[in-house]
Amino acid sequence: MELNKALLLLLTHGIPILFFTYMATDVLLRNKKKTEHILLSLIAICYLLLFVEEYVRNQVAIDYSPILSSIWLSSAGFIIIGLCFHFLIKFTGLYTSWPRFLYPYIFYLPVVFVVVNILTGAKLISPQEFVEVGMWKLPVYNTGYYIAMTISIAVDVLYVIPLLIAKAKAKNREQKFIYNQLIVGIMIAVLWHIIFGYINYGDHLPPYPYLYSGIIWCYFLRRTMKKHDFLNLYDKRYEKLFNLNPSAILLLDQKGKVQDMNPAAKNLLASLHLQPTHLFPLLDDSLKENIFAEKEIADYPINIANDGVQFALLVNADYVWVDNRLHVLLILQDVTLQKRYQEQTEFLAYHDALTGLPNRRLFDKKLESALDECKKTQKTLALLLIDIDNFKCLNDTYGHLAGDEVLQYTAGILQDAVAQTGVAARLGGDEFVLFIQHSPSKQQVDKLMEQLQSTLSRYTAERYRDLTVTVGLSIGLSQFPKDANEGQALIDHADHAMYEIKRHRKMKTINA
To answer: Cis link prior to 481 (omega < 30° from 0)?
Structure first.
């Protein structure tokens, strides 16, 4: 063979061989385990074999062309059909509705046909006739050739069907764009097939010029896979962001099964003593309904508790396509500490920091509500204004820590005294107030006052033995509706009663 002819053959077949070699390697190295990548690599390898066969056939005598075409060229072509359909069905996710005995075994049938054809010496495929024109060994464009070409074009058109079905089911704009790209690729390849398959260009073009449509088809496949990888391998493209994000990020399928999670999510589940499969059932029903309905979820507050551990979380969710299936990207932000701070702030706005009792602001609201109820039900209410006697002497003798301790103890006995029947509060300093509703009798109130007096006096006497004075309580009583109808009036009446008790006690001490 002359040098210029050898170089031309290298150009027309060597470059496609290099292209398919690069494509098969590039796609496979992107993901060696993924079925779509393996299938696409095999498709490229089969097209590579087609051009290798043509390179070899045009190097040897024309007598070998029929057998090479019937066994080598036809075998690779049949296998490409099975691989392309397998790729499209897998890529579009349509295989999920197929019975297990059918998928993927139906796509192996072309391989069986090829094996039988080779073992029978290519008797299943009629050998083509060839004629040598110039440097090319061209097929004869007879009836058999046109029948084979028509069948090949019809098969190419059938590739569009799974793509149209998947496009109709797609809810994501990006997925529809991908399917459109593949459909365009198929139609261009079909058009190329028609133009360069049916028309005989003689020795102006290499034999089987329609084979170059494989370059177009594989180019669109590779381009689609790169776009598909960009959408689906979010966690790999943003691996550092995914792993370093302090929020728990989980990838769930549509059934709520965790497919992947970042280290923060693993730590969260470990803190809750949860397995990944147990997380989704703990979400509240409203959140799960929103997820199943594919609704937008932003800053949705939930509490998750398990094994004595509780977390306050804010949930954000988005929906992404992975392996051509819709998945839920769940982001859980731990706001437990912030919620505790918020609750503490809200608590301190209505409670005394030292004793934990309600403050005057909250007490007034509770008292007003209790009085409204008493007016409706025509029941009585007792209000007690309380002051700790000789509290300053205790502070001066034992210090403020002892004073705080007595205040806390007093708050505790007052809280226990009202229980579910009223509210106790600290007004400030050594002053407290409480009310008891549900029609307490005068005898019950007097008994309670005696118990409070004796309990505190006994406690301080035992704890502070060196104290020369008795630490007790001065208690002023007022009753609704006997003494007053409004909250402040009841407090004023109780204050006056307490003042009279103190004055009377002081006079007795002076007279003694």
So the answer is: yes
The helix (run of H) or strand (run of E) holding residue 137 is strand 136-139
Instruction: Give the DSSP letter of residue 351.
Output: B
Helix (H) or strand (E) holding 350: helix 336-350
Both tokens of 47, joined, read: 């097209």
State how far the Cα of 490 lies from the Cα of 105, in Å rounded to an integer.
Answer: 88
d(CA 367, CA 494) in angstroms, rounded, equals 14
State the Cα–Cα distance between residues 436 and 439, nearest whole angstrom.
Answer: 8
Three-state SS for 67?
helix
Under 8 Å CB-to-CB from 213, ≥6 apart: which residues? 188, 189, 190, 192, 193, 196
Contact criterion met (CB below 8 Å) for 274 and 250: no
CB 452 within 8 Å of CB 388: no
Give dist(CA 411, CA 433) in Å, integer. Answer: 10
Radius of gyration of the chain (CA): 44
Strand ordering across the sheet containing 431-436: 422-428, 431-436, 381-388, 473-480
**In the beta sheet, which residues pair with residue 314?**
301, 333
The residue to which tokens 């059934």 are assigned: 255
Q: What is the pTM of this model?
A: 0.52
Phi, psi (degrees; rounded to nearest 5) at 10: -65, -35
Range of weakest confidence among 114-128, 285-299, 460-474: 114-128
Instruction: List all residues 6 or more positions away from 172 whose beta carbon is below 8 Å from its beta carbon.
Output: 321, 326
Candidates 165, 163, 221; CA nearest to 189 is 221
Chain centroid offset of residue 175 CA:
20
Residue 427 to residue 301: CA distance in whole angstroms: 35
Task: Kindly state the percentage of the chain with pLDDT values over 70.
Answer: 96
CA distance 481 to 500: 21
Which H or E run contains 303?
Answer: strand 297-306
- Chain centroid to CA 21: how far? 39
Query: How big is the chain, counted in residues?
Result: 512
Rounded CA-CA distance 86/162 in Å is 10
**Within a 10 A sphere around the Cβ of 331, how many other Cβ atoms?**
20
- CB–CB of 263/250 below 8 Å? no
pLDDT tens track for 123-173: 778 778 999 988 899 999 998 899 989 999 999 999 999 999 999 988 777
Tokens 């490409």, residue? Answer: 80
Reported as a single tens digit per residue, the pLDDT across 20-53 is 999 999 888 877 888 888 999 999 999 999 999 9
How deeply is 481 buried, as exposed, middle or buried, from its count of CB atoms within 10 A (0-12, 13-18, 19+)?
Answer: middle
DSSP 358: B
